[in-house]
Amino acid sequence: MNSFNLYREAKDQYEKLIPDKIDGLILLSLYAKYKDKDFTEENIISTINKVFKDQGNDSSRTEYNRNNSIILRFQESFLWRNASKKTYQFKKYGLELCQNIEKRLIEKYNPAKIKRFFDELHKSLTENIEQNKDFNEWIEDHFEIRLPELTSQIEILDQQVNESVKDFKTGINSRNQDILDVLKGIEIRLEVIKEQASELRNAFQISYDIDDLLLGLLEENKGQNYIANIHRVQTFHDNSRSQLEQVSKRIEKIKPRIREFIYDFNKKNFDRKTNKFIDYLLQQSVVIREGGAKKIKLPDNLPELLVKSTEHNLKFNVIPIREISPKLPIKVTERKINVNKRRELLEKTLKWKQDKERIRYWTNLAFKELEEKGTFNFTPFFFKILEEDQLTIAVKTAHSIIRKNIISRTKYNVAIKKEPIYGATKKGISLWQMTIRKE
């Protein structure tokens, strides 16, 4: 049993493995200049001074002690010191840390690249199955290599949404006169991200074909030794599709808030300008007397207003008869129902529901026996299903039982003997001996 406790081990080593902000920026600056080349202590001190100055920290009298302390910290996990040459070089851990940060910051969204990855995965998996190779080799040689890139593309989109949300929150609290232009830019950016998420979802479509190939492995009894890896690939696909959907939903929630804020801002801005104009008129206008009447004299830079009479002048309006005559009835378009297509769809739906109910029935029956007896021999149960149902029901029931076993792996234990057993009625079908025990 593995007794390694990550939290306990990291608690005492954390500061040595994860640099703080200043130390991290110094390391990244050194990495950007020297990569895997040698550099001197003077190079490190020069970089330290530049980073501290950039961060707004003035030099102090304790500069010497500060620099020595930083260099000693770096030597614990990040830098090698060559005493004979009096030079320094990145350790493997420090180099990988800076490389991962660099890769993440320069990584760009590329759905076409993801589609090529999935095409390659589908092609290589098809060849693996056709040539009857070890499925675990495909996991190591193809899936493991592509997995980080596939995952990072979704993270890039999610990070772009987070940045847009942050900009929006900053914008609504800003007194910048160009706030509307900023918010409209954020709205356009979110629309672009949404389109990118849609493109990435399309690139992930071929993952369904990969899932079908994996399901075929299970149905043909070729995947008993690969259940954990098959489940891992399917789980990754399900999670990726769900995460892409979440990105689109977040955008749909944010965009109405931006449009609502722009509308409210425009309305309040109009009210402010109107009130300011009225206040200006009240402050700058004067009342003068002309003859026996008083008049309001507006400021010199405004033209005089012509006040219309409040008395209504009668007018004769001619209304064309076509505007008041009754409308001609509009012929209602008759919609025709394709009875055959509707019947086929209904039959498919009923067949799907019936199959689902049968699979649920057999699965529940199997686990009921397992709970009562503590052990369950699946092989004769499989042939019993064949006697009463179709082969597809038996295969999908087996898949359902296996999936439940994977989910509750700590509760059940599966033992498989690779000896083919043939049924009494279905001569051409064989199955390995599989027994499930309750832990």
Describe the fold and architecture.
There is one protein chain. The protein is mostly helical and 439 residues long. The protein folds into three domains: 13-104, Orthogonal Bundle (Arc Repressor Mutant, subunit A); 107-271, Methane Monooxygenase Hydroxylase, Chain G, domain 1 (Up-down Bundle), CATH 1.20.58; 339-438. Helices cover 66% and strands 10% of the residues. The chain has 13 helices and eight strands. The strands form three sheets. A three-stranded antiparallel beta sheet has the order 1-3-2. Strands 6-8-7 form a three-stranded antiparallel beta sheet. Strands 4-5 form a two-stranded antiparallel ribbon. A hairpin with a 7-residue loop joins strand 7 and strand 8 (430-438). Helix 7 runs antiparallel to helix 8. It is flat and about 120 Å long. The model has no long low-confidence stretch (mean pLDDT 78).
Could you tell me the number of beta strands? 8
Give the averaged pLDDT, no decimals.
78
The helical percent reads 55-70%
Q: What is the distance, rounded to the nearest whole angstrom, between the alpha carbons of the first and last residues?
A: 17 Å
CATH class of the largest domain: Mainly Alpha
- Low-pLDDT runs of 5+ residues are none
Stated plainly, the CATH topology of the largest domain is called Methane Monooxygenase Hydroxylase, Chain G, domain 1
Proportion of beta-strand residues: 5-15%
Count of structural domains: 3
**What is the N-to-C succession of helices and strands?**
HHEHHEEHHHHHHEEHEHHEE
SSE class: mainly alpha
In DSSP terms (H or I, runs of 4 or more residues), the helix count works out at 13
Biggest beta-sheet profile = 3 strands, antiparallel
**CATH architectural arrangement of the largest domain:** Up-down Bundle
Shape: flat
Q: Strand order, biggest sheet?
A: 1-3-2
Rounded Rg:
37 Å
